[in-house]
Amino acid sequence: EVQLVESGGGLVQPGGSLRLSCAASGFTFSSYNMNWVRQAPGKGLEWLSYISGSSSTIYYADSVKGRFTISRDNAKNSLYLQMNSLRDEDTAVYYCTSLSSAYKFLMGWGQGTLVTVSS
Amino acid sequence: EIVLTQSPGTLSLSPGERATLSCRASQSVSSSYLAWYQQKPGQAPRLLIYGTSIRATGIPDRFSGSGSGTDFTLTISRLEPEDFAVYYCQQFGSSPPGWTFGQGTRVEIK
Predict the structure, then answer these.
(1) Contact, A82 vs A19, CB < 8 A?
(2) Which of A51, B35, B41, B48 has the highest local Cβ count within 10 Å?
């Protein structure tokens, strides 16, 4: 069974940093491209970043480009999101998702981890 | 960047009724890259439909998707109590590369 478990969320002050992790199991992690998606309280879904299985290709949404960095460690079956220069509007539940390469849909979702940016 | 606009914002229906949800794109979307998700309160989204009309594993056949170009539709033929939720459409675009979501349609019990 595909399982994705996010961790690392919490309360951080504006301008601060946080590193999210996503532990994957139940599938061959290195073979799958991965994404981070977030959802602000009471709002819709926002795609943030993509990383290919080999880490050779990375994309970011404009809203986080230059502030967030996606990475992965295939030996540890883990996905990461380093978030710097956090703003109030970054407050959200952050989800890691696996990706269908053929149809580009978000297959597996974790339960999410809440990041709150507030002074 | 392609913008997806979902309508209506809220759909108030009774169990057993038919629900028709619309997703309109600001420019043409590849049918292969159009998906629909269901989200219930406190839960992660769940994939319903991908490739415009292909039901994901375990999704009942009362859910169907259709469309092409800029207009896509999710239809729930007969609403069951567990279908009352928020539904999002999603597309992948290659220029610039990235994924976008519609703002969601809430299907609520009338």
Answers:
(1) yes
(2) B35
Question: Which of A36-40, B85-89, B95-99 has the lowest average pLDDT?
Answer: B95-99
Asked if the C-beta of B90 comes within 8 angstroms of chain A's C-beta atoms, the answer is yes
> How many residues are recorded in chain A?
119
Q: Which helix (H) or strand (E) holds B86?
A: strand B86-94
Confidence of residue A110 (pLDDT cuts 50, 70, 90): very high
CA angle A62, A67, A69 (to 5 degrees): 95
Half-sphere exposure of A80 (CA within 13 A, CB side): 12
- Please state, rounded to an integer, the average pLDDT across all residues of chain A: 97
Q: Is the dihedral of CA A99, A100, A106, A111 positive or negative?
A: negative
Res. A1 pLDDT band, cuts 50 70 90? confident
Cis peptide before B45 (omega within 30 of 0): no
Judge: B50–A103 Cβ closer than 8 Å, yes or no: yes
Q: Are strands B105-109 and B97-101 parallel, antiparallel or unpaired?
A: unpaired
- Closest partner CB to A45 (pick from B96, B98, B101): B101
Whole-number Å distance between alpha carbons of B45 and B38: 5
Interface A-B, measured as beta-carbon pairs within 8 A, has a size of 60
* pLDDT at position B1 over 90: no
Q: How far apart are CA B21 and CA A93, in angstroms?
A: 25
